[in-house]
Amino acid sequence: MIDKLAIIGVGLIGGSLARALRDAGHVGEIVGHGRGIENLQRAVALGVIDRVETTLASAVRAADMVVLATPVGSMKKILQAIAPYLAPDAVVTDVGSVKGAITDAARKSLGKKFPDFVPGHPIAGTEKSGVEASFASLYAGRRVVLTPLPETKTEAVQRVRAMWQAAGAEVVTMTVEHHDTVLAATSHLPHLLAYTLVDMLARQHDSREIFAYAAGGFRDFTRIASSDPVMWRDIGLANRDAIVRLLKQYRAEIGNLIKALDSADGETLHTMFARAKAARDAFVAVDQKKEEP
Amino acid sequence: MIDKLAIIGVGLIGGSLARALRDAGHVGEIVGHGRGIENLQRAVALGVIDRVETTLASAVRAADMVVLATPVGSMKKILQAIAPYLAPDAVVTDVGSVKGAITDAARKSLGKKFPDFVPGHPIAGTEKSGVEASFASLYAGRRVVLTPLPETKTEAVQRVRAMWQAAGAEVVTMTVEHHDTVLAATSHLPHLLAYTLVDMLARQHDSREIFAYAAGGFRDFTRIASSDPVMWRDIGLANRDAIVRLLKQYRAEIGNLIKALDSADGETLHTMFARAKAARDAFVAVDQKKEEP
Fold it and tell me: Which residues pair with A51 in a beta bridge?
């Protein structure tokens, strides 16, 4: 149970967590802080948060749980700003898609409160953003990864775990490095590839017509290119080593594909496509099973 | 109105057309031919076709409309095989995603019947295949592109147009070359990129875990990688010039992305992602409007 929850960044992710915890009766008071005052007022009107705090200091003061749900790029500044105002019993966690950069920033900024910081990442979301897009069941059955450090307090991990479980999520732990490698592959790389494709096509001279003949497959493939550009710029920069490694590998694979097409090597193409289909079908089968009650 | 419709390849595309035409009362008898006898028997049991013809000759004999709905790679052989048996009043059309290769094959195979051949391509489909996946409304509000040649009979085009309109589609015409360029960008390239990504990730040593932490975005992005590998091998080979051109361009864009990440150039990343998001959001807005009644 959380007495006072401070959500910094009341968008899709922060707003959905607030809604879920309220529904679960896991929280007393919820205060919100963020850059867009209209979004925050809307969050109050929707009942997502109880009130707006206009400074970071007042938002975190006396809060026993502080959740950072802003784009990854702004977290360093926020950690520095809140450090002096955190209550002795406050636990701090975040929802960033990259854990290495945020953990480094937290270590530098939080000082003696660092053991109360639990790096976290809910594997959930849609391409939409803002509190209007938030909903209480976003985390139901989804995984939340926590990446505690050796110095992280067990009790802090336990409280963050209990929070996410109350929101309906399944909580797992892994190292910071492992998280960032795995997420680069399943999330960061696909987002960057989708942005790159849509941007390339949008800059073709006949782009209007190209999009006019796009069907459902294109729509699905490019859905993630409608995600928030600031958020993904930050993620790209924060996890660039792992992402660049994968991008180089992918570029080499494109080279192999070009070679197979140039030499009309149907066997290689079929092997590649069939292997991909089998892997994707297996992934979906597991994913669907996971979602069953 | 079609008296006898012969569908060669009774899968998602051919089966859905049969169902739609039956529902619209636009067809008398529907016969089916294909390689998988179980699939054909299932098509009869489902009422999608009236009966199975075990040879191409008997399937097309006395048919006034012949629809080729097989993978692109098999169309050349089929066109050669049916040519001697086509009725004088028969119109032949296809549903292939590539029009250049099929048109060349038809010109060589059909001889004096070539003016009765109307190259076609419904911009519709799902990642599923087989007659079980077919449904009557697949083409409702979707576009069908016809690419008639200078020698194609106007009446043949008119009959194919009427057929697709009866199935609920909007029919447009363009040149073979233009079709193949546009579709390479919106359909062929995305499919090949999705296959390449899933195949690459499936071959990583920790692939099981990678897929375990994939979320909805990954699922959408890779949906097209569950498409039929034979179909896409054929499309890749049949339209390889246009596809390779785009793949090389895409590979260069990946190079630019790597450069921006390596130099921590957040401004370039943001510009690229924001431009992509704007284009994708605009495309979806138009696409949704199109689907409204």
Answer: A31
